[in-house]
Design goal:
The complex is a heterodimer of chains A (115) and B (114). By secondary structure, chain A is mainly β. Chain A contains no helices and eleven strands. In chain A, strands 2, 4, 5, 6, 9, 10 and 11 form a seven-stranded mixed sheet that branches. Chain A has a four-stranded antiparallel sheet with strand order 1-3-8-7, with no helix packed on it. Chain A starts with a strand and ends with a strand. In chain B, a hairpin with an 8-residue loop joins β10 and β11. The chains are: A mainly beta (115), B mainly beta (114).
Chain lengths: 115, 114
C-alpha cells in the first residue's frame, strides 16, 4: 500500500544533540511538508519542498534543517539551536496540482522528548 | 494573510447526538477548504473537502458546506458514535497558489460517550 512512513515513532534528545527524523513516501508525490504539533496550537509549518533539491522555510523554521535529495525522502533535523523541541512532528506529502486542490497525506508522526 | 478559526473544545456528546463544529476562515485568494481528523497517537486523515463556493463535502456521515458569504465551513454530523472521538482540524489552501501549503485551525477535541 502507498503511504508515508515516519520513523522512529518515539525519539529522545539529550541537551546539545542534533537528531534527525525520517520521512519516506511511496506515493510519487512531488511536494512534502513538515509540521510541528503542540497541544492546543494546531499544526505549524516548519519546512516544505515542492521538488527535489529545493525547499522553503515555513513559519517556524528556526532551529530546524531539512534536505530533499530524493523525491521520496524529506528528513528533518532538529538542531541544538531549537530550545523547545518537545512536540509531535508530522510529515505530509501531496501531488502537485492546480493550486492546492490536492489533499495532503500524513504519516503517523514522531514524538520527540528531551531527556 | 490566510487563517482559520475553529471553535474551541473540548466538545463532549452522548452517542447519537447532533454535532456541529464551527469553522470560519480568512483568505486573500480563492481557498479550498478541508476537514481533517486525528485519532489518538496517529497522523491526520482527510475527512472531506470542498473546492468552491456552495460545494458540500461529505464522508462517513459528516458534512460541511463551503459558504463564501459567511466565510464558513462548519462540520456537522447527525448522529455521532463513540468511534468518532478524535481531534478535528479545519484547514484551507489557496487555489491560486501552486504551493499547496495548508493553514490549520487549532483543532477541536470531540469525545463521545456511550
Amino acid at each position: 500500500d502507498g503511504g508515508i512512513t515516519q520513523s522512529p515513532k518515539y525519539l529522545f534528545r539529550k541537551e546539545g544533540q542534533n537528531v534527525t527524523l525520517s520521512c519516506e513516501q511511496n506515493l510519487n508525490h512531488d511536494a512534502m511538508y513538515w509540521y510541528r504539533q503542540d497541544p492546543g496550537q494546531g499544526l505549524r509549518l516548519i519546512y516544505y519542498s515542492q521538488i527535489v533539491n529545493d525547499f522553503q522555510k515555513g513559519d517556524i523554521a528556526e532551529g530546524y534543517s531539512v534536505s530533499r535529495e530524493k523525491k521520496e525522502s524529506f528528513p528533518l533535523t532538529v538542531t541544538s539551536a531549537q530550545k523547545n523541541p518537545t512536540a509531535f512532528y508530522l510529515c505530509a506529502s501531496s501531488a502537485q496540482g492546480s493550486g492546492g486542490n490536492q489533499p495532503q497525506h500524513f504519516g503517523d508522526g514522531t514524538r520527540l522528548s528531551i531527556l | 494573510g490566510d487563517s482559520v478559526t475553529q471553535m474551541e473544545g473540548p466538545v463532549t456528546l452522548s452517542e447519537e447526538a447532533f454535532l456541529t463544529i464551527n469553522c470560519t476562515y480568512t483568505a486573500t485568494g480563492y481557498p479550498s477548504l478541508f476537514w481533517y481528523v486525528q485519532y489518538p497517537g496517529e497522523g491526520l486523515q482527510l475527512l472531506l473537502k470542498a473546492t468552491k463556493a456552495d460545494d458540500k463535502g461529505s464522508n462517513k456521515g459528516f458534512e460541511a458546506t463551503y459558504r463564501k458569504e459567511t466565510t464558513s465551513f462548519h462540520l456537522e454530523k447527525g448522529s455521532v458514535q463513540v468511534s468518532d472521538s478524535a481531534v478535528y482540524f479545519c484547514a484551507l489552501t489557496d487555489r491560486g497558489s501552486t504551493l499547496g501549503r495548508l493553514y490549520f485551525g487549532r483543532g477541536t477535541q470531540l469525545t463521545v460517550w456511550p
